[in-house]
Amino acid sequence: MDSIFSQASFGSSAIDIRYGATTEIVAPDLLTITTGAEVSSVFGLHVGAANVVNFYFIDTLSFCGGVFNTGFAGCGELPGNDFVVESSIAAGGFGAELLAHELGHNLGLGHQGGGNLMNSSLNGNTSLTAGQVANILASPLVQSDSSGFFININPILILAEAVSVPVPAPATALLMLLGLLVVRRRAA
Fold it and tell me: Is the pLDDT of residue 174 over 60?
């Protein structure tokens, strides 16, 4: 994504994409989105300040912008600070293009013909015009510091269930502690 937002059309105004920690949200009813209400529910889970973009990863997306279509790969607020994508497509060869395209919507860009990043379908072309770059740089999501321009992103994984991490049973932990005490006494 950094290469897309630092291409030649950005000149000396390249934008660094900064990723925050990944958040996992258990919401099995939102893994498949088929209605506007479900899109709103996902976007209502926003983590962070208003100038932080949330990328939500789900299984299936069939609704966006008032339209039902099983061919959708992503849906972004125009403008806004949230978008949702199908995980399987985001993990594939068009992943960076998909994420950058939806981020483009958040930054105020609509669909545009001409075979660039904002084409209505993924096409392998991630170029942006000077006019599109000017619109991006005017977005309140684009911040700056001594390093230059940046956009903060929080990846959000929507899960069917919590990922469990094995924790030793109390009896096992107690036995381990006793073993350490015995070894320590023998060493003394």
Answer: no
Say which DSSP state 4 is in. Answer: G
CATH match of 4-187 with 3.40.390: yes
Q: What value does the mean pLDDT take over residues 15-31?
A: 97
Dist CA 118 CA 78 (whole Å): 12
- The pLDDT mean for the chain works out to 91
pLDDT per residue as tens digits for the range 57-92: 999 999 999 999 999 999 999 999 999 999 999 999
What is this structure's pTM?
A: 0.85
Q: Pull the structure tokens for residue 35.
A: 């209605």
Domain boundaries, the chain: 4-187
| Residue 138, pLDDT above cutoff 60 | yes
List phi, psi (to 5°) of 70: -75, -5
Residue 18 and residue 47 in contact, taking contact as beta carbons nearer than 8 Å: no
Radius of gyration of the chain (CA): 22
Question: Distance (Å, rounded) from C-alpha 165 to C-alpha 68?
Answer: 38
Contact 64, 72 (CB under 8 A): yes
Please tell me the distance from the alpha carbon of residue 123 to that of residue 119, in angstroms, as a whole number.
Answer: 7
Other C-beta atoms lying within 10 Å of the C-beta of residue 22: 11
